[in-house]
Write a structure and sequence with these properties.
Protein name: Glutathione S-transferase N-terminal domain protein
Pfam family, one: GST_C_3
CATH architecture of the largest domain: Up-down Bundle
CATH topology of the largest domain: Glutathione S-transferase Yfyf (Class Pi), Chain A, domain 2
Domain GST N-terminal: 1-75
Order of helices and strands: EHEHEEHHHHHH
Number of helices: 8
Domain GST C-terminal: 81-204
InterPro entries: Glutathione-S-Trfase_C-like (IPR010987), Glutathione-S-Trfase_C_sf (IPR036282), Glutathione_S-Trfase (IPR040079), Glutathione_S-Trfase_N (IPR004045), GST_C (IPR004046), Thioredoxin-like_sf (IPR036249)
Bound molecules: glutathione
Shape: globular
Length: 204
């Protein structure tokens, strides 16, 4: 299977999960704005996963779940039971629909205003900080409850997903270093061999 990614993006979460799962895959660098890539994902975004099916899979959270489900021995998915499955689903939804979008005005302020002036773009960027902080504080609480893991005290797809987005706070006025639980989580994740491999390989 082929994972389409771009450096620094949320697609790296899928790459880390593929490594953790011991999957047989190829990582393909994509130019997400290109016409060629739009034929792979009409939404012009990474990640996309091609498993040789009728169409390419898209949406990071869904792809991560697929990786976990297709490699059950790697125990990257939820624990047994309806409520446990709900909790992972809830956490993945939080990451995909609260944490991730909180960054959009920061990275792409021009999409959130019709005023093209520098001052307007700066204001939009700065408006992102409060939503990012709100989501980071929620993640901080999840990690405290999970003993340093995002989901139920053990490694899961949620760790990979949270890790790549937390990195985006690096150059913000309030970076991940200012959240004690997240800082410990980042220390553990950056020491992980698969994470180190992916973070190096994505630069190539
Ligand atoms: N809803 C999609 C969003 C994916 C997404 O926004 N990916 C970013 C990288 S983190 C991207 O490709 N952005 C390109 C763009 O917005 O032009 C998902 O969760 O997979």
């Amino acid at each position: 299977m082929k994972l389409y990614y771009a450096p620094g993006t949320c697609a790296l979460a899928c790459w880390i999960a593929l490594e953790w799962a011991g999957a047989d895959y190829e990582a393909v660098r994509a130019d997400y704005a290109s016409e060629e890539y739009k034929r792979i994902n009409p939404l012009a975004a990474v990640p996309a996963l091609d498993i040789g099916g009728k169409r390419t899979m898209t949406q990071a959270a869904a792809i991560l779940q697929y990786i976990a489900d297709s490699h059950p021995e790697s125990r990257l998915g939820s624990n047994e039971g309806l409520e446990n499955a709900f909790e992972l689903n809830e956490t993945m939804s939080f990451l995909a629909s609260d944490l991730h979008p909180a960054f959009w005005p920061f990275f792409m302020p021009y999409r959130y205003t019709t005023d093209e002036s520098e001052a307007a773009l700066k204001a939009v960027k700065e408006s992102a900080y409060a939503r990012i902080d709100r989501a980071m504080l929620h993640l901080e609480n999840l990690l405290a409850a999970g003993g340093g893991y995002v989901y139920q005290g053990r490694r899961s797809i949620a760790d990979a997903y949270a890790f790549v987005m937390v990195r985006w706070t690096e150059n913000l006025p309030k970076s991940w270093r200012e959240y004690p639980e997240i800082a410990k989580f980042m220390e553990r994740m950056t020491a992980d061999q698969a994470v180190q491999y992916v973070m190096q390989a994505q630069k190539a």
